Amino acid sequence: MAMNDATPPAPPGTLRLRRMGIDTYQEPVLYMHSGCHVCHSEGFEAQSRVEVGLGGRTIVATLNVVSGDFLSPDEAGLSEAAWRLLGASGGDVASLRHPPPLESLGHVRAKVYGRRLTQAAADAVITDIAAGRYSDLQLACFVTACAGDLLDLEETVAITRAMVRAGERMHWSEGPVMDKHCVGGIPGNRTTMLVVPIATACGLRMPKTSSRAITSPAGTADTMETLAPVDLDVPHIQRVVERTGGCIVWGGAVRLSPADDVLIRVERPLDLDSQGQLVASILSKKAAAGATHVLIDMPVGPTAKVRGVHAASVLARALRDVGQAMGLHVRVAQTDGLAPVGRGIGPALEARDVLAVLRGDPGGPADLAQRAAMLAGELLEMGNAAAAGTGASVAEAVLKDGRAWRKFQEICEAQGGMREPPVAPCRQEIVAPRSGTVIGMDNRRLARVAKLAGAPKTPCAGIDLHVRTGEFVERGQPLYTLHAGSPGALAYAADYAHAQHDAVHVIEDD
Amino acid sequence: MAMNDATPPAPPGTLRLRRMGIDTYQEPVLYMHSGCHVCHSEGFEAQSRVEVGLGGRTIVATLNVVSGDFLSPDEAGLSEAAWRLLGASGGDVASLRHPPPLESLGHVRAKVYGRRLTQAAADAVITDIAAGRYSDLQLACFVTACAGDLLDLEETVAITRAMVRAGERMHWSEGPVMDKHCVGGIPGNRTTMLVVPIATACGLRMPKTSSRAITSPAGTADTMETLAPVDLDVPHIQRVVERTGGCIVWGGAVRLSPADDVLIRVERPLDLDSQGQLVASILSKKAAAGATHVLIDMPVGPTAKVRGVHAASVLARALRDVGQAMGLHVRVAQTDGLAPVGRGIGPALEARDVLAVLRGDPGGPADLAQRAAMLAGELLEMGNAAAAGTGASVAEAVLKDGRAWRKFQEICEAQGGMREPPVAPCRQEIVAPRSGTVIGMDNRRLARVAKLAGAPKTPCAGIDLHVRTGEFVERGQPLYTLHAGSPGALAYAADYAHAQHDAVHVIEDD
């Protein structure tokens, strides 16, 4: 090192941090050079778990040992997830050491060997998971040990409670606090942004925290963000709810049930059907948000998350039973999960659908309006804001007479100010390759096209559907319009759309 | 790109490969830039599984998306494991696409949900695992689903058979083929290099394939390599065995039961006690090597792999039963697993112990000689080369009269020529901090010190023990000598040895 070098050497046991810009899909990874003195003196090896400390914060990361020349021996590289979790900045110097032994893994092993998870065991495991102390392999082991029907009711309640305890909680004054959740699996279906203004316009309280997209082209938080700020802290959320009765904000900003966010990243690639984990995931978020009444929208269909009526009724019962043990009133609404709901797929296009329904535009998507009114009606009945059997018609009236629209604008203003959703500069129509009846659409491929076009990162990007299942189309008639933020993204999406043409829309000759 | 650039652009769907020099502990990882056209047009995302094709070979790797500037958008970076598996060279251009769906994962899910693994299911799963098609998360899921006592005898046999079928096999002419295996957990204990020459000197056939160290300071292959080449192909192994009756070679060069090598890398960090997997791992290697008679050395002790007598007898029965189903004669010898066997820890130091025993040096480690004679005696009796009850004394005689030593030299010459083990240039004595009786040694910390000194990568590095458990030591008396290849490595090991002084050797005042 030259005498006039501006950066003094880091103290023993520490290294200067470097942001590697490597997206490892949430797993915190640490990169150290094979010639690094800390690596040697601590005896770290590839795949060692290493505790990285910066200021008062520590994370545990998995080590990858680098012999290439893009990392120097006096640097510690961090993956994007590790950089974010540690809250690091350029030039920071961090300490590196062996993490304390992970005692709670003993409970996971005991569960693998067939013993039941006690509340104490669940608390220990979930606390460590929420703190990021489990490697992805250890998370996969825990998820597998809890999959299928391997968790009974008591164990599911124990995990749900532990997940609530391991994060932040929101507290509300006496009285019902309404919430809703969609089990998921179909694009569009952006009912939350309609249900919240309807319910709050009828006097119910509904502080709604939503997620951003993980693998879908848009989450409710992404869609709402095209109309108003969603990244609110707890005091701000409470002010909004006091003033308007409700909110639609991003839950990630308030750390409700953080263990759930960690578990989701390994559950998804394993694609294990784990009822206990699903119930714990849904209800822990709701309990942490301070809800008292929870309505679950459960779309049922072959390409939805819940594929048949038997699975739906088993899951519904588990949600109600665990909800009861947690002190929550849970109602489950089974809905049609065969096709997308609404026309837009992607944040701004879905927001446009929501606005059209709220404003009562004649061309607005009727299916979205109807689905939202049905769900809002259930909530109104649960919260005693409508008599049994009258909820849906009350909700429809609130939509039609503009009360929901006024309430929605009020909520947006309270969250920081309403804005216009962006509009895509690049568009291309995808047309029917032949005449016939559209007998089906592939929800997954539609989602893929929307993501290739740039959704949700580019909020204006996505798909605008022009035909529905059952409609007759002429050869050359537009099936949907691609929206993109750049000509390149438009070309990627169009290439895929053309290559997968017959699979996205299935057209049968008449 | 400049007009006179020597490298033409890669064809569509392909990228130029780059060796990143990142050790991900065996997991094949692919690094693509977030601005990469293939990444966009194929719709790959962080954690996507991607099939990388080069010539006739394909591997499946996990994608990490890079936004840093150390990778260019027209390159595909490979981790060390991916580079090696693909057999890539600098400048190679590879194709990148979505891998076919992993159908066998359905069998893993079925096992998680409580159904039994059939032979067909085991074959499908193990074939995909051996081909590297499972991600580490999916491997952890399979390992967890098979852990504890979740595999019954038939399922264990099915997995063992599948593991043999998924790799290469060695074939031998009619007659007994002897083998031995140590379940492991204690340093030193380098008996194989004594048992093979004793057994073959008595007329038995013993083509021994051994492993290199994974987490220990030395494997038998590492130790043998300090005396003779071990990296032989199958025809060479067969010539050596025809000429001498035996061999001691590295099994990794001949791809016996490759699924086992893949599974081991996730079993280790999970530390799940999985009897079925352990039995399948041991016996699949032996069956693939063409063995007919297998002796298992099972050290039992609180810091060994098998911790108590009950666990030992359950495991022994499973080994015998599965062995029988595979057509193998299996005998299990329970041995003392309380302490290291021999004095050296590290390849060259363990080789020195072996040579001392073979040459009958008066100062050679008696415990190693005795353990080897006992195990060889069992093998002689199994192979009818000694009458029942006389095996150990026959083996001792063969050691004492030099026949084993001559046979060992013959084997080394046939494997490519005998050589002298290297000697460490840097040494340091670690002395007793006080007087008293050594009442115990920590095998794991001893192994750690030896590895910090450089073992097994630096073959001359390791530990030379001077005192045994039960001996009285004076303050300042040498407990052991560190051997290292460089002053830096010596300093690392000595620092740790001093910091952990009381834990490595436990000395009690008299």
Could you outline the blueprint of secondary structure elements for this entry?
The structure is a homodimer of 510-residue chains.
Chain A lengths: L13 E6 L2 E2 L5 E5 L3 H6 L6 E6 L2 E10 L8 E4 L1 H7 L6 E5 L7 H8 L6 H12 L5 H10 L7 H13 L12 E5 L9 H10 L4 E5 L9 H6 L8 H11 L1 E5 L7 H13 L4 H14 L4 E8 L8 H17 L3 E8 L7 E2 L1 H13 L6 H17 L8 H10 L2 H12 L11 E6 L4 E6 L1 H10 L9 E4 L6 E2 L4 E7 L2 H13 L1 H4 E4 L2
Helix pairs in contact in A: 3-5, 4-6, 4-10, 5-10, 6-11, 6-12, 7-14, 7-16, 9-16, 11-12, 14-15, 17-18
Q: Which structural traits does this protein have?
A:
homodimer, 510 residues, alpha/beta, Barwin-like endoglucanases, Transferase, Pyrimidine Nucleoside Phosphorylase, Chain A, domain 3, Pyrimidine Nucleoside Phosphorylase, Chain A, domain 2, 4 domains, 6-stranded mixed beta barrel, 19 helices, 19 strands, globular
